[in-house]
Design a protein that fits this description.
Elements (H helix, E strand, L loop, with lengths): L4 E4 L3 E2 L2 E2 L4 E11 L2 E7 L10 E5 L6 E4 L21 H24 L4 E5 L6 H19 L5 E5 L4 H10 L6 E5 L8 H11 L6 E3 L5 H6 L4 E3 L3 E6 L9 H11 L3 E4 L5 H14 L10 H13 L13
């Protein structure tokens, strides 16, 4: 498995301009008080300094993958922190930062600055809502401009040939496809190979359907095409906790092809803090005629019983 390489578009190390330099990736963009940094192997570029160095960049779009389809595991956008040692306010600030990153990366995918992203997190915390809000904005702008809709959100089960049709329909450079709760794709070899092709960060993403199909002929869809759009895959599966080695190998291959953002809401405490966070903004009870005392009572009840409830979710039926 070859290591991923990146080219710095705009960044510095110890005030040395690194624009145009190629490094071996160690860890993807991590936000910091002064913007952020990406961790790379020195490789002799800066003699006398550490084996790995942090290149200061302002945004995750300030570098790009280069070379053949890179296959090195892509680390998380922000390092996990032991939540037990943090106050509620500190942990809520981290959760908010994760969702800000999700929002920024969704915009970047829609704009074509990022070609593929996987978002992992438990159900009911707002990951789909965050992405879909940005997609709806793009769709509205397209409708106003009288353009073909360049974004689609696919939910639920997807057959291999249905997946192929969808990728072809949105294969143009200005298109984005969001797969939400389509985890069945990960358990079908044909679908999984198609998804790998779409998520590949190589220069050319050619996707093929080699089996004979009357449906594709009827729809005028070729047996192969170059996918130039962007893909956002939203899943409840936590990749690094998967027990099946066979599935784990496939998930590692997917991670190596694109940006992977784990929202790290792994405990009931994290989920209730996320709910409190949304409640503070006024969005949680916005459509309900509830007094503040009633809202506080609901949140307090959920907090007191968080370890007894079957599920914590921002959304109720």
């Amino acid at each position: 498995m070859s290591q991923a390489n990146i080219r710095i578009k705009a960044g510095t190390y110890r005030n040395v301009d690194c624009a145009g330099r190629v490094f071996e990736l160690v860890k993807q963009f991590t936000p910091s008080a002064k913007g952020g940094f990406v961790t790379v192997k020195n490789g002799g570029t800066f003699p006398g300094f550490a084996e790995t160095v942090r290149i200061n960049v302002n945004h995750f779009t300030d570098y790009e993958f280069v070379g053949e389809a890179p296959a090195a595991p892509v680390s998380e956008i922000v390092a996990e922190v032991q939540a037990a040692s943090q106050s509620d306010e500190e942990r809520m600030a981290e959760i908010a930062q994760r969702f800000e990153i999700l929002n920024d990366m969704s915009k970047a995918c829609i704009a074509g600055d990022i070609r593929a992203m996987i978002v992992s997190g438990p159900p009911g915390v707002g990951k789909s809502y965050t992405v879909e809000c940005e997609v709806e904005k793009a769709q509205l702008l397209d409708q106003i401009a009288g353009k073909r809709l360049r974004a689609e959100v696919v939910k639920g089960a997807a057959s291999p040939i249905g997946l192929y049709q969808t990728l072809y329909k949105y294969s143009d450079p200005n298109c984005v496809v969001v797969f939400d709760d389509c985890d069945s794709i990960l358990f079908d070899d044909t679908s999984l190979n198609l998804l790998k092709g779409a998520l590949d960060s190589g220069k050319s993403r050619k996707i093929s359907w080699l089996a004979d199909s009357n449906l594709l002929r009827k729809e005028g869809i070729p047996s192969s095409f170059t996918f130039k759009g962007s893909v956002i895959f939203i899943t409840n599966i936590k990749f690094d906790k998967t027990k099946s080695q066979r599935l784990r190998d496939h998930l590692d291959a997917l991670q190596s092809r694109c940006h992977y953002l784990d929202l790290t809401l792994d405990t009931m405490r994290d989920k209730i803090l996320r709910i409190k966070q949304i409640a503070r903004t006024g969005e949680l009870f916005g459509d309900l005629d509830l007094q503040q005392t009633d809202q506080d009572a609901i949140i307090e009840f959920m907090d007191e019983n968080k370890n007894r409830l079957r599920e914590m979710s921002l959304y109720g039926n």
